[in-house]
Design goal:
2 copies of one chain form a homodimer.
Chain A (H helix, E strand, L loop, with lengths): L5 E3 L8 H16 L7 E4 L1 H9 L8 H16 L2 E2 L5 E2 L1 E7 L9 E5 L3 H11 L2 H19 L4 H14 L10 H19 L7 H15 L3 H9 L8 E7 L10 E6 L11 E6 L3 H5 L6 E2 H7 L1 H18 L3 E8 L2 E9 L4 H13 L5 H7 L2 H7 L3 E2 L1 H9 L3 E4 L1 E4 L2 E7 L2 H9 L4 E5 L7 H5 L3 E4 L7 H8 L4 E3 L5 E3 L4 E4 L2 E4 L3 E5 L4 E4 L4 E2 L7 H13 L3 E5 L3 H9 L5 E5 L2 H4 L4 H9 L4 H26 L4 E4 L12 H14 L3 H17 L11 H6 L3 H18 L6 E5 L5 H22 L6 E6 L2 H5 L1 H5 L4 E4 L1 H9 L3 H14 L16 H15 L4 E4 L7 H10 L3 E4 L4 H14 L2
Parallel strand pairs in A: 3-4, 16-17, 17-18, 18-19, 26-27, 26-33, 27-28, 28-29, 29-30, 30-31, 31-32, 32-33
Antiparallel strand pairs in A: 1-2, 2-7, 5-6, 5-7, 8-9, 8-11, 9-10, 11-12, 13-25, 14-24, 15-19, 16-23, 20-21, 21-22, 23-24
Helix pairs in contact in A: 4-5, 5-7, 6-7, 11-12, 13-14, 13-15, 13-20, 14-20, 15-36, 20-36, 21-24, 23-24, 24-28, 25-26, 28-29, 35-36
Chain lengths: ~900, ~900
């Protein structure tokens, strides 16, 4: 049997998203549910893949199947495709597995030619409408299928509109439209050397090809990369009978969400445009009415639509994103799909739906992403800063709160410039009259978006919400001048590079950079509920990486159950301690001299640890002993060479010269070609006796002091960068002796553990040996990634890593999400071997991967006890851990 | 049953070396074979370990067992220990599992006190002899057992000798000796606050303890570390009935080898000292007679000794190192053990013994070490250089050719200074009047040794041979002045730091540094035989690392079967090409500009490869594409900063300043914090398109040219530093396309392979995936060691690695010998996975471990096809590979 390339809507269902695309599956499901869907059919994603595989040729039999399907549609509608008397018109729309709004192409009104045009005019009783539809077909087809510059068509249209009184397209007369059609055809002939095709099947198949090809359009590729969508899926093509929202004031078109996609509130939310076709809404050209207006104008239509929406939400058990058209008072459903939503809305909808009995708690947990939670906890502007800005007259404009969140950055006026400045590490806010898919690259590297035109469902708003970018849309109060790269608000001129602040939560825009503040986690009731449910199902504990008491307090508020990594190097970097540290380093081989400096550092460290212990109040507190190489505490070699050369040349200050030379000599003696693989971690502890001993003394003295105040402590001493069991054995024995001595001196006993980081690959390979001397392992997956790949994190990103991800040599940046295939093997090996040697060994991860959802899923699978991440990521990690538990039940 | 701590000689045998030590086992074997061994017993190594384990206490029952054993000895000798009438005297000697010549202690004449002294005098009919023995006991016991400064005793002895006519110890009268004894006793009492013990058992047990303790003496520890001997073995103690070589001119003592330990010649070789005790020979104080003299003086003794030697050699099937004493015309054997020998002797003896039917070829192969072979192939001085030096009057002295090989270096006059200067990377020759165990540390870091006194079996000679150090001993023509740190030969003064050259093969010493030359491998007939036998049994092939045709030719002469690593970076470093390379780098993102430079490099590279291919004549030639980071081809950042600062300060040359600034800007843009893990290897090939393509074009154009000349070629293109399969896929596809294109252009087909290095740990972890695109793997175990341990090779050695080995944190330097425990796991994993995915994959190693015998054993076990090492190590690797095959048959 030949392959089936084409499915009538009633032949599909919701489970067939991979084959029919999300839109096709939704249309099929609605058709079968008896909803008013314009009849049509879907050309499958497999057809698309076959098309590419054969060097852009339709597969055998597809065209015939499409013609057969069209016959069925003709039978149902009573119209005929290409028939001059009763013409059937169709739309040709993309529809990938997952929604990629605005990223691919659509051609409407396919089936119009000079003959069918007359039939349409007669049927509609509206010649103007027929010509309006025809000019839309020619320009859309020319632009999308034939790559003609759209501006050529727009100029003609604008010129014609300029001659009318109202200056709007609805003001164009039939004659004007006829002239436009003729001019469009001339442009088409001139640009391509061939006439616009009258053959309706040629129109249909060429449009289909154009949709296929748009899968590999630049903007689609960029979007997929950002959203981690595979290039291998392809898109389906949906052929729908055209229904017309532009047949007069009893017609219209709209998009709506069954709940508010910004706040999650359970109200129908959307926009409606009278006497218009769909693309007018999405493009943000005309500012539409809120959907509530429809209730006033056409209460029955609204009622019908509202009920269908409810039904679809109940059916899909998720908030739906709907497209509909009203043709002369009759409602047609053109799309249903799970709606994109803000982080806040995602949480609220999920929790509400559980409370409404629509979904289970586990479903709710899977419906919200860890990213949602993170975004939700992103800072907002400080109310006082806002108030002050307003008083100072710095509130520039008020637009739509299109995507929540607060962002500050330098204003830029086009996507390339945004990419360029962001590439240099600058925060930018992209300011555009409106955005188009061509802008996506620049949008995604910006911190926030601001548009002059467009509504809550405009391109800018959709992309911003999908990408968690704060966005203010339709801020009509600003006047953009692209040539001058500036915008004005009254007298105020904001030039490229000037700082602005956008608040996507309330739609306000400010001059200057406003101070931000953290979200008040306590008042996020829905999030709190959701995370409580997460705590019920997750098996992984969530620890935090915290070096200071204030971090620890913040993380505990977010639900952290311990500290997985307390770095102690900052305790050496602080200004008042630096001279002591430098003195200690300068002591070199002189152990006694070094000790005098260490004795000075001890009280500082003790106070540091007391603060941490008090904040943790008995929760496990994993403290990593000094890790960085000593030269990090000294001036750089390059700066010293420069200073010395200059002092020598001028001869002005022999004393300073001598000091610098002495320092340079020290720095040179510590200099390393590859400090990442040099004398750091436990190598420092071993080669500079006394340093880690001092740290352990400080930890235990602090612990004893705090215990005397009635507060519990649970220090876990972590020895870093161990590669050979003897390093661990030596350090542990020396340090545990200090611990015991301190406890004896103080007469206080403290529960404690000694353990090691597993970060150099060799540690994973000999984890069984290490487990003999380690009560816990903490995976330092940052360093392990560096050494397993041989990538220097400091260098790789800029030098080749970004390019590697772009060229798809690597599926993702392995420093952001754990390389499960490679580094993951070492982690799994160490878990297995460590546990074999010491069954009750405590296993956790403290690399930055501890906050990455995909990595958390992996850590759940290999059976760690906890993941540790920055305090801000703790809440998201709780959710990710729950999702992992649900996924692998 | 109680532990058996003590074995009479006849209770042991040769297989009991672990328990009885090498000397004890040899004495037992000789005793049981009926050889004339003075009766005695051995206190076991286990006793020594028990002694240390219990905090320096003899184990329960040991002393009683010793007393029982002594009774048996008394019965056999008819003498009694501590008896005034017929006293039994004993020696107390160390004896570890393996010989550690001079590293531990011996006490002779134990059992003498004022009473037994008289008995001895009477029995010997020689009062002088008795007092001489007594004074030796007191000084030896005082020095060794009680740590009294030996100089205190020496001063007394020297003063007494000074009063005699002949100034020799043999010239001392009985009265003088009596006085000496009294003075020694005074010293003893003064230093220790107690009298010299008269209790003979106290003497014996204290001496035994001293021998035990000497196991952890500094010199013994240093020796063991150098010779990779475990600290955990302990030493046995042998209690021998004393026989006296110092009982007159019909007495004497000697050491001998059954073959010449320098040349391997099959003649009895040794030295004999009339009327002396053993330590006089070893210490090199008196210059002994050659053993051949014994033949003239005492032909029967010589004959008996010669036959016993032959018998022992036949018995042990190895050249023996014998100690003997003649007491009033009666021969006693005091030791037999396998003799240490020079590399040359080792080879010759092994091959001779096969030809004599004494041992099998496999035994011969196991008898010679890879190190022997390497040493044997070490360079010697160029004859012309020697002749010239002689003509110029630079031949300073002629001594004994105590240990062969040629060395040049700066003269130093004590061990500390040697260590200090060697630590700074300077080549030094240690020049000493004679050496003692205290000098060993300094000897081992020197390039060669020169002594004024001592013979072929003196301390200096023994240590030098064991450590493959060229040594000229007993060069009496030089006069050393330690205080002035110089020696003089006539008018010539050689001061510390002056260059000298020593030829340990002929015993000559020269002023200045003489040019060296390679050994003529073709003329080493015995070695050639041995290596042919090695080729018969080994399974591993031996490739070489060769970048130039001359290296390739040399390696082939040594038996290399292919090139495992031809680095191509030198082709970029050569002076005339550097400006082109710099231009190429400065082109940065400009692919077209870069290409113009690459086009200029192409003909250079082609010529390079033609030379290599011609030398290899069809043998496999593995060529690694460009590996180092680009900044290595540019000036250093530090030097540029210095130059620029200076130019700015002086303002003298704005043009130069601008140029330097431009260069600095480039260098900064390429600068990496950790270049070892930066943009190098295939990352360069991927990020700078065209470079590796040019290299592959050069390889294949060269190959085609050479093939046209009738020479076969077999290039194997190696892509370095691959960590992800996509890197390999991308490069292989691009490069194989170039290869095919060149072959098509040239109309010549060449057999070729593409493969990758396995060096970053991740490559081993995903070896199954890599094998899909690699026809061969070559393990780059240097980099793999760096990344598996997280050690930067450039830094680690000095910063902590040397200390790690000294502190025994690591068993050895993992860059010298593969870390089988850790890095080895990755190698084994990659072998298994690679072969599973591609059964006929070719597997080799090209890191420096390819020439290390222990690592070769490992590579044999994991089943590699070949190891690749430097041309000079090829011959040794052939032997090591054979040994591995024999070991794991």
């Amino acid at each position: 049997m030949a392959n089936k390339w084409v499915y009538l809507f009633h032949e599909g269902n919701r489970t067939m998203g991979e084959l029919l695309g999300g839109k096709g599956a939704g249309l099929a499901e609605m058709t079968n549910a008896g909803l008013p869907v314009p009849p049509g059919f879907t050309i499958t994603t497999e057809t698309c893949l076959a098309y590419f595989a054969s060097g852009n040729k339709f597969p055998e039999g597809m065209q015939e199947q499409a013609r057969q399907a069209m016959k069925a549609v003709e039978k149902e509608t009573g119209k005929r495709f290409g028939d001059a008397e009763n013409p059937l018109l169709v739309s040709v729309r993309s529809g990938a597995r997952v929604s990629m709004p605005g990223m691919m192409e659509t051609v409407l009104n396919v089936g119009l030619n000079p003959q069918t045009l007359q039939g349409l005019a007669k049927l509609a009783g509206n010649e103007r409408f027929a010509y309006d539809s025809y000019r839309r077909l020619i320009s859309m087809f020319g632009r999308i299928v034939k790559d003609i510059d759209g501006a050529l068509f727009d100029e003609v249209l604008e010129a014609a509109k300029a001659k009318t009184e109202g200056k709007r397209d609805t003001d164009l007369s039939v004659e004007a439209l006829k002239e436009i059609v003729e001019e469009y055809k001339v442009i088409y002939q001139r640009e391509l050397g061939e006439p616009f095709p009258d053959d309706v099947w040629e129109q249909l198949f060429q449009a289909t090809e154009a949709v296929f090809r748009s899968w590999f359009g630049n903007k689609a590729i960029v979007y997929r990369r950002h959203n981690k969508i595979s290039d291998d899926w392809g898109t389906a093509v949906n052929i729908n009978t055209m229904v017309f929202g532009n047949m007069g004031d009893d017609s219209g078109t709209g998009v709506a969400f069954t709940r508010n996609p910004n706040t999650g509130e359970s109200v129908l939310f959307g926009e409606y445009l009278i006497n218009a076709q769909g693309e007018d809404v999405v493009a943000g050209i005309r500012t539409p009415l809120a959907i509530a207006e429809l209730k006033k104008n056409s209460p029955e239509i609204y009622e019908q639509f509202y009920n269908l929406g409810k039904m679809l939400e109940g059916h899909y058990k998720d908030m739906q994103d709907l497209e509909f058209t009203v043709e002369r008072g009759k409602l047609y459903m053109l799309q249903t799909r799970s709606g994109k939503r803000t982080a806040r809305a995602a949480v609220k909808i999920a929790v509400d739906q559980v409370n409404e009995g629509l979904i289970t708690k586990e479903q709710a947990l899977m419906r919200v992403t860890a990213e949602n939670v993170e975004v939700l906890l992103h800072p907002s502007f400080e109310p006082a800063a806002k108030e002050a800005a307003i008083k100072e007259g710095k509130l520039l404009a008020h637009g739509l709160n299109a995507s929540p969140g607060a962002a500050t950055g330098k204003a830029v006026f086009d996507a390339e410039r945004a990419a360029e400045m962001a590439g240099k590490g600058e925060d930018v806010i992209l300011v555009r009259p409106e955005t188009s898919p061509e802008d996506v690259g620049g949008m995604l590297v910006s911190k926030g978006l601001l548009t002059q035109h467009g509504g809550a469902t405009s391109h800018a708003a959709v992309v911003a919400r999908g990408s968690n970018l704060p966005c203010v849309a339709g801020a009509e109060g600003i006047l953009i001048n692209n040539e001058l790269r500036q915008f004005t608000v009254g007298d105020i001129v904001v030039k490229e590079g000037d700082m602005i602040s956008v608040d996507g939560s309330d739609g306000t825009v400010y001059l200057g950079a406003l101070a931000t503040m953290d979200v008040d986690f306590q008042h996020e009731a829905e999030l709190a509920s959701l995370l409580e449910w997460a705590d019920e199902v997750r098996r992984l504990q969530i620890y935090m990486n915290a070096d200071y008491p204030r971090d620890a307090e913040r993380g505990i508020a977010f639900g952290a159950q311990g500290i997985g990594l307390c770095r102690t190097e900052h305790m050496f970097f602080e200004a008042e301690r630096r001279p002591i540290v430098v003195g200690m380093i300068m002591a070199r081989g002189d152990d006694a001299k070094r000790k005098t400096y260490l004795d000075q550092l001890l009280p500082f460290q003790r106070v540091d640890f007391e603060g941490i212990f008090e904040a943790m109040n008995g929760l496990p507190t994993t403290i990593r002993l000094l890790d960085p190489p000593m030269h990090e505490f000294l001036p750089s070699r390059e700066s010293l060479i420069e200073e010395i050369t200059e002092l020598r040349c001028t001869g002005s200050d022999p004393k300073a010269l001598a000091d610098k030379e002495k320092m340079l000599e020290l720095v040179e003696s510590l200099w390393e070609a590859n400090p990442m693989m040099g004398q750091r971690g436990c190598r420092v502890g071993i080669m500079m006796p006394g340093v880690t001993e001092m740290q352990v003394r400080a930890i235990f003295e602090a612990g004893c002091n705090v215990v005397r105040r009635g507060i519990k402590v649970a220090p876990e001493i972590m020895i870093p960068l161990v590669g050979h069991v003897n390093e661990l054995k030596l350090q542990r024995e020396a340090l545990e002796a200090v611990a015991k001595q301190v406890m004896e001196e103080q007469g206080v006993q403290i529960p404690y553990k000694f353990g090691t980081m597993i970060e150099v690959p060799r540690a994973a390979l000999v984890a069984d040996q290490l487990a003999e001397y380690a009560e816990f392992f903490s995976f330092g997956t940052n360093d392990m990634t560096q050494m397993t790949f041989g990538y220097s994190r400091d260098d790789a990103e800029e030098k080749f890593l970004r390019a590697y991800v772009e060229k798809k040599i690597l599926p993702h940046n392995p420093f952001q999400s754990l390389d499960q295939e490679g580094v993951g093997q070492l982690v799994a090996m160490a878990v297995e071997r460590g546990r074999a040697a010491r069954p009750d060994i405590e296993l956790g991860v403290c690399g930055e991967h501890g906050g990455d959802p995909d990595s958390i899923d992996f850590f759940h699978r290999v059976g760690l006890k906890y993941v540790s991440c920055s305090p801000f990521r703790v809440a998201a990690a709780r959710l990710a851990a729950a999702q992992a538990a649900i996924r692998h039940k």
